[in-house]
């Protein structure tokens, strides 16, 4: 297999705020040395939530190269090749917008989404987030470190190819009925598409082990809130899971909220000048005042709803 896996971290919800990049090349099925670099974004505006996720701050990138500085080193790795990313629509959008922000042209490239591939390869898994998949397949991961994330995405594609008996990522995509996305030099693009990995909210139900006592689950008796777009479930499905585990959901964050689950935030839906959703701001404010609310990612949520007590024969 020949391809390059890529991952970006961003300073805030804006897609032009890349603050770290990881690239892992694969040649003839052999994983090469991963490239990693911090990036100084055009505007040094870091969202507290983004920093909470990846740990990168303004101080960390103040002396880092810009994407324009890095481009002569990066572009030969990805131009005219096949690029893989987990939730590729995000990373391709960050690439396009971040290049625009520093006055560079977008290259022609083809890309695949390892998340969409994974949904077809392992449909029975509770989640197809990078963190969950890495645990399920014993892939070492320092989640939200761009270099480690790109390496994990590469290893998932290689594992999928091995299971399907194919040595070409495009052939793997065909086996999984997933299309290859394209980014063109005129900045037009076509997305990766494939069979929906989501389940109907009318039929979805978390599969609990036989005899499982929901009262032992960490969401039992808790109030769980959601903000942003989740990767693996719809909002209604996620709420249904919480109720199935004995928890409750409300429409706003209060002092009684136990968990706020943060998905991907769409900057277009935020208040003008804001880098966080209202729910995230409220939860952060409550925490600063000593409140009990815990702020977790949607990947954390998927791992938590799939973690069961070992005493009852659960994961």
Write a structural description.
With 315 residues, the protein is an alpha/beta fold. It folds into two domains: 3-190, Nucleotidyltransferase, domain 5, CATH 3.30.420.10; 214-312, Rossmann fold, CATH 3.40.50. It is 34% helix and 16% strand. It contains eleven helices and eleven strands. It has helices spanning 48-54, 58-61, 67-78, 88-101, 114-121, 130-136, 146-164, 169-175, 235-244, 278-288, 298-305, and strands at 3-10, 18-27, 30-31, 35-38, 82-85, 109-113, 181-183, 189-190, 224-227, 259-262, 294-297. Strands 1, 2, 3, 4, 5, 6, 7 and 8 form an eight-stranded mixed β-sheet that branches. α5 (114-121) runs parallel beside α7 (146-164). The protein is globular and about 55 Å long. Residues 197-203 and 309-315 have low confidence and may be disordered.
The helix/strand class is alpha/beta
Strand content: 15-25%
**Average pLDDT level:** 87
CATH architecture classification name of the largest domain: 2-Layer Sandwich
Tell me roughly what share of residues is in helical segments. Answer: 25-40%
- Tally of distinct domains: 2
CATH class of the largest domain: Alpha Beta
* Contiguous uncertain segments of 5+ residues: 197-203, 309-315
What integer value in Å does the Rg equal? 20 Å
Write the layout of secondary structure elements.
Blueprint: E1 3-10, E2 18-27, E3 30-31, E4 35-38, H1 48-54, H2 58-61, H3 67-78, E5 82-85, H4 88-101, E6 109-113, H5 114-121, H6 130-136, H7 146-164, H8 169-175, E7 181-183, E8 189-190, E9 224-227, H9 235-244, E10 259-262, H10 278-288, E11 294-297, H11 298-305
Parallel strand pairs: 1-5, 5-6, 9-10, 10-11
Antiparallel strand pairs: 1-2, 2-3, 2-4, 6-7, 7-8
Helix pairs in contact: 5-7
